[in-house]
Amino acid sequence: MTGCSFLKPENFQIEKGLKKQMKIYLASASPRRKEILKQVGISFKVVPSTVEEHVTSTEPHKVVEELSYQKAVDVCGKLSETKDEDFVVIGADTVVACWGEILGKPKDKQDATDMLQKLSGQSHQVYTGVTIAWKYKGTPAMFHTFHECTDVTMYSVSEEDIEAYVSSLEPMDKAGAYALQGGYAKHIQGICGDYYNVVGLPIGRLYQELKKRNLLS
Questions:
Q1: What is the pTM of this model?
Q2: Is the C-alpha dihedral spanning 44, 50, 56, 59 positive or negative?
Q3: Segment 88-108 mean pLDDT
Q4: Could you tell me if 136 and 12 are in contact, meaning their C-beta atoms sit under 8 angstroms apart?
Q5: What's the CATH architecture for 21-212?
């Protein structure tokens, strides 16, 4: 990516105790991710990635890590060309996996219906990959990527309930065609893991990763 060079974190040490003012950019237009960051008081600006996504793996955790990394690299490159400042970029991607099949955002109502029927009465996994890119003036950018996985179990859902939910159009921009924090919450039997990971951003883990790298002002 033009304007965004690479450096492994272990090759670049920040002086202990030094606190830099880092501007944070979210490489996503997701309203849910924006709400989560605002909820915990992290100040940020939105610069959505426009990169053409390319996946080389079929394993869910690797897929979300790849996509989050591509988004972070894309926005990091753009900012490096236009900003003369210290900054952090957060890239994220979420998918649902059921019996090894990755379920992204539905293409249409029929696709959403098929996904929800597949998930009905089953346990599945929600994976979110996150990449943090950070760059100080005059130095190469550094990157750290991780993922979180949450198990979600659904009650059996009737065809009538699925049809009504799909008609609401809420599923159409959601991985797996449902929102845990939305109208489909009544069909969730339980979760094991990070709730916010299912919503789209594992904020607890993200906060810890930012904090230990001294990236929060």
A1: 0.86
A2: positive
A3: 94
A4: no
A5: Alpha-Beta Complex (3.90)
pLDDT confidence of residue 84: 77
Q: Which tokens sit at 162? A: 């699925």
Retrieve residue 109's tokens.
């109502």
Q: What is the pLDDT of residue 16?
A: 40
Question: Tokens representing 103?
Answer: 């379920």
Active site residues: 93
- C-alpha–C-alpha distance, residues 206 and 24, integer Å: 13
Among candidates 55, 127, 40, which has minimal Cα distance to 92?
Answer: 127
Instruction: Give residue 22's identity as a one-letter amino acid code.
Output: M
**How far apart (Å, rounded) are the C-alpha atoms in residues 197 and 114?**
23
Q: Quick one: tokens of 31? A: 């309203």
What percent of the chain clears pLDDT 90, i.e. is strictly above it?
A: 80
Inter-residue contact 119 to 95 (CB < 8 Å): no
- pLDDT of 4 reads 45
CA dihedral (104, 108, 112, 113) positive or negative = negative
pLDDT at 85: 86
pLDDT at 138 over 90: no
Element holding 147 (H helix, E strand): strand 141-154
Q: How many CA atoms lie within 13 A of 154 on its CB side?
A: 24
Phi, psi torsion values for 214, nearest 5 degrees: 60, 40
With cut-offs at 50, 70 and 90, classify the pLDDT of residue 20.
low
